[in-house]
Design a protein that fits this description.
This is Fructose-1,6-bisphosphate aldolase, class II. Zn(2+) 2 binds at residues 129, 159. GO terms for molecular function: fructose-bisphosphate aldolase activity; zinc ion binding. It is a single chain. Helix 5 runs parallel beside helix 6, helix 7 packs parallel to helix 9 (180-190) and helix 13 runs antiparallel to helix 14. With 330 residues, the protein is of the alpha/beta class. It has an eight-stranded parallel beta sheet, with helices on both faces. Helix content is 51%, strand content 12%. The longest helix has 22 residues, at 302-323. The structure holds glyceraldehyde-3-phosphate, 1,3-dihydroxyacetonephosphate and zinc ion. 1,3-dihydroxyacetonephosphate is lined by residues 42, 107-108, 203-204, 233-236, 276-280.
Length: 330
């Protein structure tokens, strides 16, 4: 029997309307036009993926799955090409039999070899994160990746400013937040498809000492001057009910604080279309798993204790899809 190329199979399936593995750009440009946001959920393994997928199907929402460089290395057991391929195969396998659009994105690509591995494996989009470099260098690196990625039909995200959060001393943080005028030049020069402007968030579970403080004015300016889909990193809400549950069963998350849902809604109103979410899923998972293990000391079937974590991840996912406005948009 003659073997057909994978590209031909994908093309035939997409013509038949059943293959829903899409370019991230398509999902985000629609979101930008219609003023809603799509959460991009980080995964490291199968359980989180299943939870997110189930949630998105139930909410009839477009889906963006993303993996960090660390996730790729982990999934490939040290081999980054195998790791990238693992995630593409996993996501495509399920995209084949659902009717919501699904994209797979490389989050925080800092090393050329990971970005190339993701493009070669078939990711829908990649992030080139040269945000710690001086502006000119960031622009140069981003331009280079845009050229390679676009030639392969892969869209590109870049970042401007740094995710340091805004502490009490606002002026000290000013220099790490995005400069809207620079953002305009950056987007025009690089041809990047979506941009992550630093407006005061930070990664992880401990984002703010006091109240959450985001620079909405700056965000609005960036949207006005660039006109492209914008991305919010460090966007987890660190929901108190899941933190409390995790702590009830032994976790130590004292001082955890995220971006409240109301603040995220404002971000969407002012131009954010992709809301990166990792920490919220991690906390929900650990809360579910800790509770299960404590209550079921005789259990050792991984499907049961991982399943308990999965259940809470799905809850968090469904809530996010709803309040960010993308439920029903698939
Ligand atoms: O932005 C970073 C993501 O939360 C992934 O973090 O490098 O621990 O996978 P990671
Ligand atoms: P959180 O740590 O707030 O979930 O942010 C995740 C993120 O920005 C991934 O790129
Ligand atoms: Zn991030």
């Amino acid at each position: 029997m003659k073997l057909r190329s994978l590209e031909i199979i994908i093309l035939e399936k997409s013509k038949g309307g059943i293959f829903m593995y899409v370019n991230t750009k398509d999902i985000l440009e629609k979101a930008s036009k219609e003023y809603y946001a799509v959460p991009a959920f980080n995964i490291n393994n199968m359980e989180f993926f299943h939870a997110i997928l189930e949630g998105a199907i139930e909410k009839r929402a477009p889906l963006i799955i993303e993996t960090s460089e660390g996730a790729i290395k982990y999934a490939g057991n040290g081999d980054i090409h195998k790791g990238a391929k693992y995630f593409v195969e996993l996501v495509r396998l399920f995209a084949d039999s659902v009717d919501i659009p699904i994209a797979l994105h490389l989050d925080h690509g800092k090393h050329f070899e990971y970005i190339i591995a993701a493009i070669k494996a078939g990711y829908s989009s990649v992030m080139i994160d040269a945000s710690e470099e001086p502006f000119e260098e960031n622009m140069k690196k981003t331009k280079e990746i845009v050229k390679i990625a676009h030639a392969a039909g892969v869209s590109v995200e870049a970042e401007l400013g740094q995710l340091a959060g805004i502490e009490d001393n606002v002026s000290a943080a000013e220099n790490v937040l995005v400069d809207p005028e620079q953002a305009k030049i950056f987007v025009e020069e690089t041809g990047v498809d979506f941009l992550a402007p630093a407006i005061g968030t930070s990664h992880g579970a401990f984002k703010f000492k006091g109240e959450a403080k985001l620079d909405f004015e700056r965000l609005q300016k960036v949207k006005k001057l660039t006109g492209i889909p914008l991305v919010l990193h460090g966007a987890s809400s660190v929901l108190p009910e899941y933190v409390k549950l995790a702590e009830e069963y032994g976790a130590d998350l004292g001082g955890a604080k995220g971006v409240p849902e109301e603040e995220l809604k404002k971000c969407v109103q002012f131009g954010i279309n992709k809301v990166n979410t990792d920490t919220d899923l991690r906390i929900a998972f650990i809360a579910g798993m800790r509770k299960f293990l404590k209550e079921n000391p005789k259990e050792f079937d991984p499907r049961h204790y991982l399943g308990a974590g999965k259940k809470l991840v799905k809850e968090v996912v469904m809530n996010r899809l709803e309040f960010l406005g993308c439920a029903g948009k698939a």
